[in-house]
Amino acid sequence: MSLPSLAIISRHAPHGTAHGQEALDLALVSGTFGQAITLFFIGDGVYQLLQHQQTDMIGRKNYSKTFAALDFYDVSQPVVCTESLAQRGISSESLCIEANLQPPENWRALLNNFDQIVTF
Amino acid sequence: MSLPSLAIISRHAPHGTAHGQEALDLALVSGTFGQAITLFFIGDGVYQLLQHQQTDMIGRKNYSKTFAALDFYDVSQPVVCTESLAQRGISSESLCIEANLQPPENWRALLNNFDQIVTF
Amino acid sequence: MARFSLLITSSPVDDQGVVTAINFARAALAANHQLCGIFFYGPGTHNANSLQLVPTDEFQPYSAWLELAAQGIPLHVCVTAAARRGILSETEANEQDSVSYNLTPPFQASGLGQFIELMNSADRVVQF
Amino acid sequence: MARFSLLITSSPVDDQGVVTAINFARAALAANHQLCGIFFYGPGTHNANSLQLVPTDEFQPYSAWLELAAQGIPLHVCVTAAARRGILSETEANEQDSVSYNLTPPFQASGLGQFIELMNSADRVVQF
Amino acid sequence: MILHILTESPGTDTFRQCFASISQGDGLLLIQNGVYMNTEHQMFSPVAKIFALAADRQARGLTDLSPEINLIDYAEFVELTLKYDKTVTW
Amino acid sequence: MILHILTESPGTDTFRQCFASISQGDGLLLIQNGVYMNTEHQMFSPVAKIFALAADRQARGLTDLSPEINLIDYAEFVELTLKYDKTVTW
């Protein structure tokens, strides 16, 4: 039996809370365990993917730089809800990585493919 | 110089978190110190005032019973935003106390009368 | 008979999930299901703080977790998430020259890999 | 010269307010304003937990509070709100037969009345 | 088929994210502040079967219940997680 | 005159509560996730003067700024709390 696949939904803005960072940590560890794992971004979670974040002045880790390394950790390309981007006036060019942009109907169809789902 | 008056804005639903209870605790203590103090309810905070709450099964304190005793603690009648009630389909008859129901324009005018404002 | 693992990301005081989680765990055991283990992560690691002092007329989440552990359910705590929230095992406290510590058995200091194992051995994972 | 009191209701890890509060306090002192005191309530009482172990490359809220205290700013913690969140002074810990405790000076175990006093002696109260 | 477990009230972004993620045939279980939802709030019912944890409604003093919502206890909550393939907690 | 300090993003109920509580002549200071607000989100500007904490915008990678929003640093934040009669943090 193959390992169950895991979807991690990240839905909070970065830096204010530890949610985004802890979702990413779980993704990286799952990847090294050989688990099929994908990050899903929805709602304010999409703000985590903005480029040009500079967190020195607020003393938080700029973990947005780690998204570029997901591939290295065997974590597949993140799935991003285009409706959440549009509601926030974010264009795909202002994201820090190439993401798998999907409208809600595809977003939920992709989500349904996973064996387990956790949210942060 | 008289003591500054204090407005305490309560805006979270009850029981899920400690916010509502801790706002009320502050109100009661302030009252015993002779501070002019008023509770303001807006957003999901208005759910705190629903009657018929029975919290035994969830192990939280049913502090909604304490609202009836505010007067005893020299805390004035709570101010409730009628827009928040309407959005949630709550009629004034389903509240556990007689509150000072005000539309947003009066709600904010009353708020402006206080020297200090804190939110929970 | 199904195998459940629970992921707890709610703090006992400032979130809603803990009473629900404990009632769910009890109901699962009552129905003869198996609980592979409970993993505490993020704000959920606050559950492992042994110094919690809740008024006696209210629900005692810490005691309720201990009761589940007494029935053989492993309680795993993500040590990284816990440490930044001020929840330290005796070993970690010693490394910091602290005589005080607040993560004690039956709560176990674990890593995220433990959650992956709990997930892989369960039929259902439920998060609270 | 104005007198400020700060009310901290944000937890250091799971809320946003603490870095802002500390920067605000430093800026107020730099502009020669007075800080009457800082009161920790609700989830904000987590700031007083002496066992917090934050990765060294990140902002250390606990040390930052201690630096403010070293400049003579009183740090008051609501003892009721803290106790239910697992933050105990040595006195309280002794009453519970616990050898461990995690609320130590310069943080002071206080009651809500202390917040009222801080509010009454300040020109401005700012909440974070 | 996913069992969506909703813990937040209708005014939150969480509520909207849950709504956006429900597919035809999924289940929706309201717990904690999620029980403030009534079917008038959103048109969930054509898509998903809706359940609510009775204890959480009672705690919050909620008496009016729309007929599309099925009240359940903790034993039924456990069974429900097994009737669907997986759960997601919002 | 109140200085409203907004810490949450435009999708939240907090944001709407803050908006509902602002009177003519009040100030609005965006900090933390509040900086995600842009004036296109809501019509705050006719009512209140709007400020945003530069450090929090920078941390979140926000570069486009509408002309109605005045960027400030912490020293100006302190001064701003004294220009208004009182503050409220949302």
How much is the average pLDDT of chain E?
A: 92
Shape of chain A: globular
Question: Helix coverage percent of residues of chain A?
Answer: 10-25%
In CATH, the topology of chain A is named Hypothetical Protein Ychn, Chain: A
**What is the helix tally of chain A?**
3
What is the number of domains of chain A? 1
Widest sheet, order of strands of chain A: 4-3-2-1-5
CATH architecture of chain A: 3-Layer(aba) Sandwich
- C-alpha Rg of chain A, in Å? 14 Å
Quaternary state, please? heterohexamer
β-strand amount of chain A? 15-25%
Q: What sequence of helices (H) and strands (E) makes up the elements of chain A?
A: EHEEHEHE
CATH class of chain A: Alpha Beta
Molecular shape of chain E: globular
Strand content of chain E: 15-25%
Task: Please give the radius of gyration of chain E in angstroms.
Answer: 12 Å
CATH domain fold name of chain E: Hypothetical Protein Ychn, Chain: A
CATH architecture of chain E: 3-Layer(aba) Sandwich
| N- and C-termini, Cα separation of chain A | 28 Å
Secondary-structure element pattern of chain E, one letter each: EHEEHEHE
Q: What's the topology here?
A:
The complex is a heterohexamer, with two copies of chain A (120 residues), two copies of chain C (128 residues) and two copies of chain E (90 residues).
Chain A: E1 6-10, H1 19-32, E2 37-41, E3 79-81, H2 82-87, E4 100-102, H3 104-112, E5 116-119
Parallel strand pairs in A: 1-2, 1-5, 2-3, 3-4
Chain C: E1 3-8, H1 17-30, E2 34-40, H2 61-70, E3 75-78, H3 79-84, H4 90-95, E4 107-110, H5 112-120, E5 124-127
Parallel strand pairs in C: 1-2, 1-5, 2-3, 3-4
Helix pairs in contact in C: 1-2
Chain E: E1 2-6, H1 13-20, E2 27-30, E3 49-53, H2 54-59, E4 69-72, H3 74-83, E5 86-89
Parallel strand pairs in E: 1-2, 1-5, 2-3, 3-4
